Fold Phosphohistidine phosphatase SixA.
Amino acid sequence: MNIFIMRHGQAAPQASNDALRPLTEQGCEEVCLMAQWLAPQVPVFDRVLVSPYVRSQQTWQQMSRFIPGIQVDDCNELTPDTDADLTASLILAYCEPEREGNLLVVSHMPLVGFLIESLCPGTLAPIFVTAGIARITLEKGHGGLFNWLEGPHSVRTQHAGAWPLCGTTG
């Protein structure tokens, strides 16, 4: 089982409420770039768990243009200040380590970093850039293995000009 943990794209600095902050145009482009980079590796997400905050919802909307999700759930346990160990337990409840599949989690800092730490014994919480995606491989009896963490800047450098810009989510 592969677990992909993603931080939302760049969001507007202010809104009447933190949960209402939308993606900026740059945030939309970051997510689009990451989706195009990930699509050849992941043909479909078996399950997608998304924070109810606007910026995370918009991030999933952009991702879903390139990688479909079979089952998509809004998840109140994915807000920025949620307990990472509790959320990691919830994520593991959705996973079946003995089968192959792909689960995407779209959330916020600092939770995304702490989820890596909770799911992968011996790994410290990494810092995610906006639209950053980490991959964890979950193996029965072994816990999570932290495979990689990529962001728009590293992907753009590796594959300069490979993907067109997406435009805003509207």
